[in-house]
Amino acid sequence: MERKKHKRKKNHVILVTSDAADANIRQFRVRPWLLRLAIFLLCVLVGGVAGYLYYGNKLWQIVNRRQETITRLEGEKAALETALEDQRKTHEAEVATLTDKINVLSETVKEKTQTENELSARLEKQSLPTEFPLTGSATMEEVREGDPICIFTAAQGTTVVATASGTVTAVNDDAEYGHNVWVDHGNGYVTIYRNGGEASVKAGDSVVQGTTLFLHGEENTKLGYQMMKDGAYIDPTDMLAISG
């Protein structure tokens, strides 16, 4: 039988010395696999350091760019928030201004409405035949037979005037008094003035309270005054504001 061969173990010898004259040489026996492992670990370490130096720089560049982007976006956000706040304040100021204008307009409309109401009430009052039909004093006689009529007797020079605002609808000859003037006041009231003088107005004329209709002379000191409401004669004294 052949004798079994034994593998011969190999060891690597590492010599360590220095430049000193009396330096000793040290020997270290290292197994091959252990040396290969050490070389592998050294290569891994060197590769890791080199990779860290190369890729770490790029990584930091990326991080710095991201930080710059974040800083820029934060600045834009702050600027946008400032702009929005300025717009909000501007809008609030505009709303306040508009509110003031609305309040002023509201007060103006209120005052105008009040003025119009007062004017309307004044015009309505002026259209009611409540005033005395003569400018001076006179005696009055009421005739209740037939259509109601008030007969006034006044002095020469006294003026017959319209008792309210309205429009002259007719100026006619009057069989008993001489002439008559009809005034429509536009609210259902019509007043009739009968006198012997010449009328100072003609049909179609607009009159107001106090407009002269006749002038009393020596021969026409009497005035027959009548009033109609919605086409029916009424007692004029129900509307006249007589004092004294």
Unreliable stretches covering 5 or more consecutive residues: none
* Superfamily (CATH H level) name of the largest domain: Glucose Permease (Domain IIA)
Q: What about the largest sheet?
A: 8 strands, antiparallel
**Mean pLDDT figure:** 86
- Output the number of helix runs: 1
What does this 3D model show about the protein?
This protein is an alpha+beta fold. The chain has 2 domains: 9-96; 138-238, Glucose Permease (Domain IIA). It has 1 helix and 12 strands; from the N terminus they run ββαββββββββββ. It has one helix at 32-126, and strands at residues 12-16, 26-30, 138-143, 149-154, 159-161, 166-174, 178-184, 189-195, 206-207, 212-215, 222-229, 232-234. The strands form 3 sheets. Strands 3, 4, 6, 7, 8, 9, 11 and 12 form an 8-stranded antiparallel β-sheet that branches. It starts with 11 loop residues before the first strand and ends in a 10-residue tail after the last strand.
Please describe the topology of this protein.
Elements: E1 12-16, E2 26-30, H1 32-126, E3 138-143, E4 149-154, E5 159-161, E6 166-174, E7 178-184, E8 189-195, E9 206-207, E10 212-215, E11 222-229, E12 232-234
Antiparallel strand pairs: 1-2, 3-4, 4-11, 5-10, 6-7, 6-9, 7-8, 8-11, 11-12
